[in-house]
Write a structure and sequence with these properties.
Layout: H1 12-23, H2 40-43, E1 45-49, E2 57-60, E3 65-67, H3 68-72, E4 77-83, H4 90-105, E5 112-118, H5 126-135, E6 142-146, H6 149-158, E7 172-176, E8 183-187, H7 192-207
Parallel strand pairs: 4-5, 5-6
Antiparallel strand pairs: 1-8, 2-3, 2-6, 4-7, 7-8
């Protein structure tokens, strides 16, 4: 099954319909094309992993050059995704899910840093990322990043999302409750409510240690 999302911001109804369709689809092996929708088996796979944040410098959507380790280790929880602005399939859907997750956080959003790193940095300038962010009403807690191709690939490899190029990109969301703790990895698509549940579970796990 192939999903093509319009360039306009997907509606909640569209998200619900797509996720229901995904849930009704059975896959035949791992998807490789970016335009292919993850199967039901892929949609909610979660795992935990330790990732070393690479010492690379990226360019934030406000034009500032930042150190990725410093940006990720400012004390807030991190929710991380990898997207590109010309994507017409899962990237707008992933970004809308993050937007709805962000709204559901309410007063909690000041304690969460949403980060979206471009996997097409040659096309995704800071200005283009700002326009993309506006489509999803991203607030100050949600930044988008670009940089050199080498820095982007290094970040993708560090979080095990590199698939050889943007057209082979698959949806992955990564959640870390606090610096130094393991990452929760979600392979495939989740609903905003599922993501919120996973985020709060990650916080609870850290609090119980």
């Amino acid at each position: 099954m192939t999903v093509t999302c319009p360039h306009l911001k997907p509606s909640a109804a569209l998200i619900a319909g797509l996720l229901l369709a995904i849930g009704a689809t059975r896959g035949h092996g791992q998807e490789t094309a970016h335009s292919a929708t993850p199967t039901a088996a892929d949609r909610s796979i979660t795992s935990t992993a330790q990732y070393s944040v690479p010492a690379v410098r990226l360019i934030r959507d406000d034009g500032q050059i930042i150190s990725l380790p410093e940006e990720m280790n400012d004390g807030r929880a991190v929710v991380l995704s990898f997207v590109f602005t010309t994507c017409s399939s899962v990237c707008p859907l992933m970004s809308e899910i993050l937007a709805q997750f962000d709204r559901k956080l309410g007063a909690e959003r000041a304690r969460v840093h949403l980060m979206s790193i471009s996997i097409d940095p040659e096309q995704d300038t800071p200005a283009r990322l700002r326009e993309y962010a506006k489509r999803f009403h991203a607030g100050p807690e949600w930044q988008h990043y670009t940089g050199t191709a080498e820095a982007s690939v290094a970040a993708q490899r560090a979080f095990n999302v590199w698939r050889g190029g943007k057209m082979s990109h698959v949806p992955v969301t990564l959640v870390r409750a606090t610096p130094g703790t393991p990452w929760l990895r979600i392979d495939g698509l989740v609903t905003p409510d599922e993501l919120l549940h996973q985020y709060r579970q990650a916080l609870q796990t850290v609090a119980q240690r």
